[in-house]
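Comment on the following before class.
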Amino acid sequence: MATTPGPLGEFLRPQRARLTPADVGLPDVGGRRVKGLRREEVAVLAGVSADYYTRLEQGRERTPSAQVVDALCTALRLGPDAREHAFRLARLTPASQPVPGPVSPELLQLMDAFPHAAAYVTDPGFQILAANTTARALLGPSQLTLGAFDFLFLDAGARTYFADWNHVARAAVSAIRLAAGFATPHPAVLPLIARMHAGSPEFATFWEDHTVAGLSLTEKVINHPEVGQMTLTYQTLDVREAPGQQLTVATAPSGTASADALALLGSLEATRTSHP
């Protein structure tokens, strides 16, 4: 009795048909009866046997491991959305957290277009990859150098900077636990967790709570050394074209003292940059 390809097999076939040997760095040897890569070529790129890959496409193998699906997605040059879709078809979750590359020029341009907001980009280890003028003034040298997480738990100044340090710290621990949930987390995540366990008793206590949630929308009260207290709304968004990067934007309602203070910070930083 013939088997049906199944959802994953039906998905894999057109993905390899979209690629040529030149796309993946392979020599184009011999005539091709079908468009795109041969099954054997995909198998070589993914590090699996040709027979196993054939069984996947034909539906005779329906329970690939996360590592196999991860390797196939890489071999087939799948983008973030297609990658997630492949894992869903295989009834799996992604095996690894993507390692983000540099912040794109388009995103940097977008961040600079927020003159009255602090916008910055972080990686899964909470290192700050880029920040606009207002964000540089808001975050200050310690956060920009250490990273947001190290500043929060290992710099004594964070207890003054965040009016509700306990709430901010718990939310951050929840987010880093989510990042650690991948089978192969981002390379910075596990060392960061070990560093926090070694340096912060509060982190160890919060970690045992096992709350898991990503950063989304929250309000923070900041005691800034230059402009005083501000109440800001922070919204954190995934950067779709660079999985692993997150864009955080801090704003205040127009016409409020916090909005005026944030705008003043941006002006001060712009002046410092123009006249060092």
The chain has 13 helices and five strands.
